[in-house]
Write a structure and sequence with these properties.
By secondary structure, this protein is mainly α. The protein has one domain: Hydantoin permease (Orthogonal Bundle). The chain is about 80% helix and about 0% strand. It contains 21 helices and no strands. The structure holds phenylalanine (PHE).
Length: about 450
C-alpha cells in the first residue's frame, strides 16, 4: 500500500498552520503578553520564535520528510538505533498526553459555542463556568470534541485533515479580522490596546529569566514543537518543497493570529468593563471564558458576536487536536500495520478514558496542562535537535536545500551549527530551570 501524502503545497502549509494556531494563540498568548510586559514581551517572544522556533520547525520537517515516517519510525530508521526510536516514541506518547487535556478544553469551548446561540450563560457567566468546568458534563463535552477530532482523522490525510484545514484556516482569519475591527472601534477600546501592547521595559529588565522562560514555553507550544506533529505532517511531503520558506510562512501566520486574538480580547474587555476585573485580572484557565462571556452579555448583538468568537476558537482547537491524534495514528499505521480506521478508533477510545480522568480531576488537569506539557515539549525538541545535528549531521543539509532558493541555501550551515550547539543548550537550560521551579527551588 502506498503511503498517504498531501495533495498540494498550500494544503500542507494550511494543515501545519492549523496545527500551530490553536488555544495557544487565542487563549494563552494574549494573557502571557499582557502579564509579562506587553510589547516588551512581544519582542522577546518574536526573537525566540525566529531564533529557536523556526530552526526547530525545520529540524522536525527534515526528520519527517527524509524518513517518510511517524516520529518513532523516523528516528529508528534514520539511525538504526532502538534508543533513538525510543526518543521518537516519547513524542508519540506526548501526543496522547496533550490530547488528553486539550480535548477537555475543546469540550468547554464547544459548550460555550452552543450556549452562545441562546445566551444561556449571559445572566451569570462566573457561576456558569464553575458549574461546567470539571465533572460529568465536562466529560460529556470532552467526548463530543474528541469525536469530532476522530471523525476528521478517520478521513485520512487528504480527504480528512487537508480538506478540513483548508476551509477552517481562512474562516478563522476572516472572522478574527472582522471581530478585531469591531472590537478596536468600540468606545473605550484604547485602554485595552495600551494594556495589551504597553512597552514595559522595566518589567522585562527585572524579570528577564522568567520572561524568557515563559516566552520559550509559549513558542514551543504554539508552533506545535517537541511532540513530532511537524515530523508527522512533513512525512507526507514530497521532496520538491522549500522547507525553509514553508517554515517561515507557518511561523509568520501563527504569530499574526496570536496578535489578532489579543486585538479582540483586550479592547473588548476594556470597552465593556473599563478595566480588567474579577477573573480576568487573575488569569487562570477559566479567565477567558468568564470575562469574555461577561463582556458579550453586555454589548448589543452579544449572542451573534459570541457565536462567532467561540466558533473561531472551536475551529482553531479542532485543527490542532487532529494534529495531536495523527501522531499516534501514523505510528500504529506505519509500524504496526494497523488500518487508519482501527488505529483512530482505538486511540480515541484510549483518550476518551485519559481525558475523562482530567475532566474529573482539576488538580491533575492543572499539572498536565502546565508543567508536564512544558517539560515534555522541551525535552522532546531537545532530543530531535540533537538527532538532526549529530546523527544526521551534514545529511540534514541536503534535505534543507532541496527545492530551496539560493537565499535559504546559504543559511543552511548556520542553521545546522545552531541545531548542533546553542539550541539544544538553550532548551536544556530551560528544562533545568523548569524542573527546579517544579521542585520549588528558585534560582533567580
Ligand atoms: N500549537 C497548538 C496550540 O497553540 C498546540 C499543539 C501543540 C498542537 C503541540 C500540536 C502539538 O494550541
Amino acid at each position: 500500500m502506498t503511503r498517504e501524502s498531501w495533495h498540494t503545497r498550500v494544503g500542507f502549509i494550511l494543515a501545519a498552520v492549523g496545527s500551530a494556531v490553536g488555544l495557544g494563540n487565542i487563549w494563552r498568548f494574549p494573557w502571557m503578553t499582557a502579564e509579562n510586559g506587553g510589547s516588551a514581551f512581544l519582542v522577546v517572544y518574536l526573537a525566540i520564535i525566529l531564533l529557536v522556533g523556526v530552526p526547530g520547525l525545520l529540524a522536525e520537517f527534515v526528520i519527517g520528510r527524509r524518513s517518510q515516517r511517524n516520529p518513532a519510525g523516523a528516528l529508528y530508521r534514520l539511525s538504526g538505533s532502538k534508543s533513538w526510536g525510543a526518543v521518537g516514541l516519547f513524542g508519540v506518547v506526548t501526543g496522547i498526553v496533550l490530547l488528553s487535556f486539550y480535548s477537555v478544553v475543546g469540550g468547554w469551548i464547544l459548550r460555550y459555542f452552543l450556549a452562545s446561540f441562546t445566551g444561556s450563560y449571559f445572566g451569570s457567566p462566573g457561576a456558569y463556568f464553575e458549574a461546567i468546568d470539571f465533572g460529568a458534563s465536562a466529560v460529556g463535552y470532552h467526548v463530543a470534541f474528541l469525536g469530532l477530532t476522530a471523525l476528521i482523522v478517520l478521513g485520512g490525510v487528504r480527504d480528512g485533515i487537508e480538506k478540513a484545514t483548508k476551509v477552517m484556516m481562512p474562516a478563522i482569519v476572516v472572522l478574527l479580522v472582522a471581530l478585531a475591527a469591531w472590537a478596536v472601534s468600540q468606545p473605550g477600546a484604547g485602554a485595552g490596546l495600551s494594556f495589551y501592547l504597553d512597552f514595559d521595559a522595566a518589567y522585562l529588565q527585572d524579570n528577564f529569566a522568567d520572561v524568557v522562560g515563559a516566552a520559550a514555553g509559549q513558542a514551543l507550544f504554539t508552533l506545535s514543537l517537541g511532540v513530532g506533529t511537524m515530523i508527522t505532517y512533513a512525512s507526507y511531503l514530497g521532496d520538491d518543497h522549500d522547507l525553509a520558506f514553508d517554515g517561515a510562512a507557518i511561523a509568520v501566520l501563527n504569530t499574526g493570529v496570536g496578535v489578532l486574538a489579543g486585538l479582540v480580547v483586550f479592547p473588548l474587555l476594556f470597552a465593556t468593563f473599563g478595566e480588567l476585573t474579577g477573573p480576568a485580572a487573575g488569569g487562570g484557565p477559566g479567565a477567558l471564558f468568564v470575562s469574555i462571556a461577561g463582556a458579550f452579555s453586555q454589548v448589543p448583538f452579544g449572542e451573534v458576536l459570541a457565536v462567532l468568537f467561540f466558533g473561531v476558537i472551536a475551529l482553531a482547537a479542532l485543527s490542532s487536536s487532529i494534529s495531536m491524534l495523527e501522531i499516534p495514528v501514523a505510528y500504529l499505521v506505519d509500524e504496526h500495520g494497523a488500518s487508519r480506521r482501527s488505529a483512530t478508533l482505538g486511540l480515541a477510545g484510549l483518550v476518551l478514558l485519559t481525558g475523562s480522568v482530567n475532566a474529573l480531576n482539576p488538580g491533575l488537569f492543572t499539572f498536565v496542562s502546565g508543567p508536564l506539557v512544558d517539560l515534555m515539549l522541551t525535552a522532546g525538541l531537545a532530543g530531535f535537535l540533537v538527532f538532526v545535528g549529530w546523527v544526521l549531521g551534514r545529511d540534514a543539509l541536503a534535505e534543507f536545500d532541496s527545492g530551496a532558493g539560493r537565499a535559504t541555501k546559504s543559511l543552511g550551515p548556520a542553521w545546522l551549527w545552531s541545531v548542533r550547539t546553542i539550541l539544544p543548550l538553550f532548551l536544556l537550560a530551560t528544562l533545568a530551570l523548569n524542573l527546579l521551579a517544579l521542585a520549588g527551588v528558585s534560582v533567580f
